[in-house]
Design goal:
By secondary structure, this protein is an all-alpha fold. The protein folds into two domains: 2-204, Growth Hormone, Chain: A; 216-410, MFS general substrate transporter like domains (Growth Hormone, Chain: A). It has 18 helices and no strands. The protein has helices at 2-10, 15-41, 46-51, 58-61, 66-71, 83-102, 111-139, 145-174, 176-196, 210-222, 227-237, 239-245, 248-255, 260-315, 319-347, 353-382, 384-394, 398-410. Helix 2 (15-41) runs parallel beside helix 8, helix 8 packs antiparallel against helix 9 (176-196) and helix 12 (239-245) runs antiparallel to helix 17. The longest helix is centred in the last third of the chain and has 56 residues, at 260-315. It is globular, with a radius of gyration of 21 Å.
Length: 413
């Protein structure tokens, strides 16, 4: 079984998942880290830079137009009439044009145009993610979903490192214009990748009118047994993890007095490797354990990682404990993410994959959004030790719901 899993990791079946993971990760850093760095280097005011964080809102509201992508396909050249591939190709080409346009703008002189392009980039990037999540769910066989999620996370992380980390180095040495031109070329290569992706089975409900197209996916989901409990579980499953990680950089810099270089090395090397290894370990174990037991085991490991940070807050910057804590925390987080993504794929109706998966990932982001402010208030009121203890406690309520969800996770209705 383990040897079969290893063959799957490097086998031809998962290569499309690696490719779409890379495509998905490229634009993300553009709308977050890179945009902020570009504006900062152009001496744009801190007020305007802070407002640019709102550019990422389309990622939260993407479920609102996801049903449209489930229902309609576009007829494009190259005989590309497949619903998922046609939308992916459009997103890739439009993103390439947007990024190339940024190469010839200056934030000091064209701030309004930069804002407009950034919003458009976020919209088309979020749209691309909708289609990619749906394609991945429809493409992967049930037994491939664990390793497929790990492969996707790996390629996604590589792309974010390339567009964020290495991209900033390129901008530092050769200027922002070269950075944006290079990114646009990568996205055009992504369009070529889309053309080569295998076709997945179409399951379009063509009988629905325009209004029904938007309402039917969510109505069907809410009619499932325990659907509301499932939504609450999705919010809670990663909530303690998001609560702890939301102020991780501040904790290392302000409480443990590490340097920026130390934090960069910890997160960019140890953190990256831990997340990827954790995702693959979770992917290898998931077919044997099953989704239900994986959610239990990986979730409890994710919760226990908070205890290590309690030790750091109490004893201070002990080097081995810092490395162990980050390795365990991000490794367990990667394992839990694989289990949760496999769960989301299982409960989606194949006729409305894009809409329902977009809804579930939007719900999953709620915990991440509210975790940061709550963590800040708890640190201010009770200190770092109590904050990490609270993070551990907040990781536990989801397990009260898990037994009631077993039937729809194992045999979805």
């Amino acid at each position: 079984m383990r040897w079969n899993n290893l063959k799957r990791v490097i086998g031809p079946r998962l290569w499309p998942v690696y490719l779409i993971g890379f495509i998905s990760g490229l634009p993300l850093m553009l709308t977050i880290t890179v945009l902020q760095a570009w504006l900062t280097s152009a001496q744009v005011s801190i007020v305007h830079i802070s407002l640019f964080t709102l550019v990422g809102l389309p990622y939260t509201y993407k479920f609102l137009w996801a049903p449209f992508l489930d229902r309609y396909a576009l007829s494009l050249p190259f005989c590309l009439t497949h619903r998922r591939k046609s939308w992916l190709l459009i997103c890739q080409v439009v993103l390439a044009v947007i990024v190339l346009s940024m190469a010839y703008l200056s934030p000091e002189e064209h701030l309004e145009f930069v804002v407009g392009l950034a919003v458009l980039a976020a919209i088309f990037s979020a749209t691309q993610d909708i289609v990619i999540d749906a394609y991945r769910t429809e493409y992967l066989l049930v037994e491939e979903r664990g390793l497929g999620s790990a492969a996707f996370i790996f390629a996604y992380r590589i792309a974010t490192l390339l567009s964020g980390g290495l991209g900033l180095i390129l901008a530092d040495h050769y200027g922002w214009r070269m950075y944006f031109i290079g990114m646009s070329i990568l996205m055009l290569l992504g369009a070529g990748i889309v053309l080569r992706l295998p076709i997945v089975q179409e399951n379009i409900e063509k009988s629905l009118n325009f209004i029904q197209t938007f309402l039917q996916p969510f109505r069907l989901f809410l009619q499932q047994r325990c659907s509301v409990l499932l939504l609450i579980f999705i919010i809670l499953y990663k909530f303690g993890d998001a609560f702890t990680q939301s102020l991780g950089t501040t904790f290392f810099l302000r409480e443990l007095h590490l340097t920026l270089s130390d934090v960069g090395i910890l997160y960019k090397t140890i953190g990256f490797m831990s997340t990827v290894v954790g995702a693959y370990v979770g992917g290898f174990l998931l077919p044997t354990l099953g989704i239900y037991r994986s959610l239990w085991m990986f979730g409890l490991l994710q919760a226990m990682a908070n205890v290590c940070f309690v030790g750091l807050a109490h004893y201070g910057a002990i080097k081995w404990l810092i490395i162990f804590s980050i390795t365990l925390d991000l490794g367990a987080s990667g394992m839990a993410t694989v289990a949760l993504l496999a769960c989301l794929m299982t409960v989606c109706d194949i006729r409305h994959t894009a809409a329902q998966f977009a809804l579930l990932t939007a719900v999953m982001s709620i915990g991440r959004i509210i975790a940061g402010p709550l963590a800040g208030f708890s640190v201010n009121a009770w200190g770092w030790e109590c904050m990490f203890i609270l993070g551990f406690l907040l990781s536990l309520p989801c397990f009260l719901l898990l037994p009631r969800l077993r039937s729809i996770i194992i045999r979805p209705s």
